[in-house]
Amino acid sequence: MREWIELVNSDWHGHLGHGPNQDRLDDPKWLVKFLADAGLPRVDPRTETVPGALKKLRGLLKRIVDSCLAGKHVSDADLAALNRYLANEPVHPQLRRQNRSMRIEMKTSGKGLEAVLFSLAASVADFLIQEDVGRLRACSNPNCRWIFFDATRSRTARWCGATCRSLIKVRAHRHRRKSEARSERADKRKKLRKRS
After folding, report:
1. Rounded (5°) CA angle 158-163-164
2. pLDDT per residue over 49-85, tens digit each?
3. End-to-end Cα spacing for the chain
């Protein structure tokens, strides 16, 4: 479960470098879809506490991601904050298949906002324990800022998706063409000066 990455990316920035930035947690329709797609308990997104609580958790997750991206350990304060989210719900262990092996996953029987927060915190805790945090990436498009998990065999993914990859490659191509054109014009001017 990597829904926590979607939560971090909910602070949306236009990948083109212009256009509106949007905090998707303020959009009740987006929030309902996010919770449903993640299989999380339903909560009423129109209450002030839901977006505020999710924004607070998102801030913590961003700090954890920043530590991982910088190759640093997660701070003790951030671990303590994550543990507080994990302590707020009664849980029970469940066995779950993972490829050819089994693992224990902690599930909550709770409902409502606390269960949502617990589930998201548990998914990031599981990621920190089970996954290779070195595969966590930030999109190389400086305007995008999305994070993603690099599942490539070569561990060389640089962009969050095809849109940013294409955008950056087109920009680089145009920049090279402009530089080449400037260089050609400069060469022509030098040749004209030498002739006269």
Report:
1. 40
2. 999 999 999 999 999 999 999 999 999 999 999 999 9
3. 72
**Cα separation of 162 and 188, whole Å?**
39
**Residue type at 16?**
L
Torsion sign across C-alpha atoms 144, 147, 152, 155: positive
- The residues facing 166 across adjacent strands are none
Give the number of other CB atoms < 10 A from CB of residue 165.
16
| Tokens 């920009």 sit on residue | 171
Distance of CA 48 to the CA centre of its chain: 24
DSSP, collapsed to helix, strand or coil, labels residue 195 as: helix
List the structure tokens of 20: 């509106």
User: Could you report the per-residue pLDDT of 83-115, keeping only the tens digit for each?
Assistant: 999 988 777 788 888 788 887 777 777 788 999
Look at the pTM and tell me if it is higher than 0.90: no
Work out the angle at residue 43's Cα, subtended by the Cα atoms of residues 138 and 12, and round it to the nearest 5 degrees: 25
Tokens of 176: 């090279």
